Amino acid sequence: MMNHLLILSVFLSSALFYGGDAGITSSFIRSEWPAVDIPLDHHVFKVPKGYNAPQQVHITQGDYDGKAVIVSWVTPDEPGSGKVHYGTVQGKYEFTAEGTYSNYTFYKYKSGFVHHCLVSGLEYDTKYYYKIESGESSREFWFVTPPHVHPDASYKFGIIGDMGQTFNSLSTLEHYMQSGAQAVLFLGDLSYADRYQYNDVGVRWDSWGRFVERSTAYQPWLWSAGNHEVDYMPYMGEVTPFKNYLQRYTTPYLASKSSNPLWYAVRRASAHIIVLSSYSPFVKYTPQWHWLSEELKRVDREKTPWLIVLMHVPIYNTNEAHFMEGESMRAAFEKWFVEHKVDVIFAGHVHAYERSYRISNVRYNVSSGDRFPVPDKSAPVYITVGDGGNQEGLAARFREPQPDYSAFREASYGHSTLEIKNRTHAIYHWNRNDDGKKVATDEFVLHNQYWGNNIRRRKLKKHYIKSVVADRIAN
């Protein structure tokens, strides 16, 4: 117990991570596979055996607090059963949930039957087995629910963005699956099917669903949408934004009182996760603006100390690619992020990796104030993980000189993990996909913004000392 207290004291007495020194631009040049999509006849896109067998299976969190999942899948030829059979013993399915299905057209492509089924009333920290049937074809999978919402609940998230379906994408997915993470925070740009035309758009949405099923069927991926989900193609007569994405990938938006599945929030273990939509209206008085204002008030850092925000377009970006595209959202929301002491903001969009120090530019209002970002202990760390491996390739041109607020940047493919240890600190890694090996290239200890407060640190330390005394008396 005393060793644990000593370790805790070291972390609590450390300075909050934000820095002020000039950062690092990695000179690493990665030998990568060509940025082209994997051929459709490759085994990674294999269609499951059996007539009308369920495919493209994926799960996501189904409620606000992690006691439900939404199971989604596609049956290609006919609706089949919309039921999910599940239980805690493999092969013995005590419970059944029934969902809904729909299909749609995109140009002349006609989708399969897309099923969504809410499985609720689950126990925390429990492994469930589930089966999906369609006639004589059935498939079985499993998932593990998170621990109950608690300030010291440990949990490990994976972070992936801008994935696509190239061999580089496959490398990222395989490396992520070795990480031990329990759920994915996905930062937008899934299939890159919009790089195709006509019927091939729908075909590549299907192939991506089969491509990622090896992970998405077994653990929740929390979705956010990027520009490659918009699918605005007037030359094909398709002008409804996000049509393919919203049919296939659902979110528990109603549980967080959102009016739109593109922005929502969940609580998972010790984290409160807010998902924003970079390509939906967010200026003052819009639905997303109103919703975020209310959702930030609902955050209870005593229960979920870690406040994480996901978006597609980065607010701070020193790459030539997509430079300044996040400025409008920064102007709309950065003040709130600082006021509520958001711990970290993850974004994609730029096909490279970059991490900032804790900085803000809230003092500048066009007519007065500092014109440059400055160190700010109340601000989030901004991390861009847009390096999943898609066919557009890497964004290798960083702006020079590197700004002081940029801590580390590199143009390589990879993924990140955020391992929350307790209410005070988490361990962050960015893992480069280096010639078939997972290489931890950027890592640091992330200190919690809420419990980093001096008064709360003393309160927490006093609580642990009392625990040590109580244990000694009891023993």
Automatic annotation (TrEMBL):
CDD domains: MPP_PAPs. SUPFAM superfamilies: Metallo-dependent phosphatases, Purple acid phosphatase, N-terminal domain. Its EC number is 3.1.3.2. Keywords: Glycoprotein, Hydrolase, Iron, Metal-binding, Signal, Zinc. It comes from the Eukaryota. Residues 53-148 form the Fibronectin type-III domain. Residues 1-22 form the signal peptide. It is an enzyme of class 3 (hydrolase). InterPro entries: Calcineurin-like_PHP (IPR004843), FN3_dom (IPR003961), Metallo-depent_PP-like (IPR029052), MPP_PAP (IPR041792), PAPs-like (IPR039331), PAPs_C (IPR025733), PAPs_N (IPR015914), Purple_acid_Pase-like_N (IPR008963). Its cofactor is Zn(2+); Fe cation. It catalyses: a phosphate monoester + H2O = an alcohol + phosphate. Belongs to the metallophosphoesterase superfamily. Purple acid phosphatase family. PANTHER family: ACID PHOSPHATASE RELATED, BIFUNCTIONAL PURPLE ACID PHOSPHATASE 26. This is Purple acid phosphatase. It comes from Camelina sativa. The lineage of its organism: Eukaryota, Viridiplantae, Streptophyta, Embryophyta, Tracheophyta. The gene is LOC104719223.
